[in-house]
Amino acid sequence: MGDIFAWLFFFFVLIALVVIVVYQLMCLADLELDYINPYDSASRINKTILPEFVTQGVFLLICLFTGHWFMSLLNVPYLFYNIRVYTRRQHLVDVTEIFNLLNWEKKQRLFKLGYLVILLCISLFWLILSILEDDEHAH
């Protein structure tokens, strides 16, 4: 039963990460379509970057503590990328360069979104498998 709750928790944490990345993409799309100014777009995106990094780091730690090694290994490249970007101080969107880097920022977040969707599908698969195995042991 504990495995079911772990996978359910993983599922909701991944949903939260997907929501954060989609919000960042929406801010970039709004900027591209000239619905908001660069300062507002950059400040909205920058407010969500550290929560994204912290949530992903905590997610990896919880995967490690619960003994889900495969899911932990799948999260290592994402964590490595976040740490690399943070240590190079490239994690924040610069207001003055946002138009020049708009396509790069969108591609970066689309790649993150794709990666998270793959992790979400794997998490959903293991959640369903855990429920079925728990149901077999109950009967």
Structural features, described:
The protein is mainly α and 139 residues long. The protein has 4 helices and no strands. The longest helix is centred in the C-terminal third of the chain and has 37 residues, at 102-138.
Salient structural properties:
single chain, 139 residues, mainly alpha, 4 helices
What would a concise description of this structure say?
With 139 residues, the protein is an all-alpha fold.
Draw up the topology in text.
Elements: H1 2-32, H2 38-65, H3 69-87, H4 102-138
Helix pairs in contact: 1-2, 1-4, 2-3, 3-4
Helix count, DSSP H or I runs of 4 or more residues:
4
Q: β content, as a range?
A: under 5%
> Main β-sheet: number of strands, strand sense, barrel status?
none
Helix-strand sequence = HHHH
Category by helix and strand content: mainly alpha
- Give the overall pLDDT as a whole number: 92
Round the Cα radius of gyration to an integer and report it.
17 Å
